[in-house]
Amino acid sequence: MSKKNNQAPARGPRTVATNRKARHEYFIEETYEAGIALTGTEIKSVRMGRVNLQDGFVLIRNGEAFLMNVHIAQYEQGNRFNHDETRPRKLLLHKQELRRLHSQVTQRGWTIVPLRMYINERGLAKVEIALVRGKQLHDKRATIAKRETERELRRMLKNY
């Protein structure tokens, strides 16, 4: 990895973790990009890809958004300075976005969940969060049936 003129090599965003379960459990209404306030050992663990977004959600308290229940594994070389693995982490959003999210959650009863965590071009950890509403069991079955028919259609067209 050679550096030219003291610049880091150019790279695009790199996905660290995705929440595949969220797309199955919820209808996604809107998505937002948020920064995350992390400690030193947390960002090292995130860059190693040791993140689990499965049970995560976003809580809005006192005009601030917090990422709850997201598991970031402890950094092996972190010794006594290591972090708590599931601590609440502050999300960095614009005030307008926070107000809009808070109003949608309180008025419509929707939820905010993390969809994916990634490292952007500048090397910063970002999380893509979504405003979602829950799917009923029959909605999930309809989604699965639709996916199966599309798969069958593609298979039939491929044979011809």
TrEMBL record:
Keyword terms: Cytoplasm, RNA-binding
A molecular function annotated in GO for this UniProt entry is: RNA binding
Question: Does the record carry Cytoplasm as a key word?
Answer: yes
Q: Name one Pfam family in it.
A: SmpB
- What are the record's GO terms for cellular component? cytosol
Q: Where in the cell is it found?
A: Cytoplasm
Q: Name one GO biological process term.
A: trans-translation-dependent protein tagging
Coiled-coil residue windows: none
Assign the protein's first listed, main location to one coarse class: cytoplasm
Asked whether the UniProt record includes Glycoprotein among its keywords, one would answer no
The task this protein performs is described as:
Required for rescue of stalled ribosomes mediated by trans-translation. Binds to transfer-messenger RNA (tmRNA), required for stable association of tmRNA with ribosomes. tmRNA and SmpB together mimic tRNA shape, replacing the anticodon stem-loop with SmpB. tmRNA is encoded by the ssrA gene; the 2 termini fold to resemble tRNA(Ala) and it encodes a 'tag peptide', a short internal open reading frame. During trans-translation Ala-aminoacylated tmRNA acts like a tRNA, entering the A-site of stalled ribosomes, displacing the stalled mRNA.
Q: What's the family?
A: Belongs to the SmpB family.
Q: NCBIfam families per the record?
A: PRK05422.1 (NF003843), smpB (TIGR00086)
Tell me which HAMAP family the record gives: SmpB
Please report the name of this protein according to its UniProt entry. Answer: SsrA-binding protein
Q: What is the lineage of its organism?
A: Bacteria, Bacillati, Chloroflexota, Caldilineae, Caldilineales
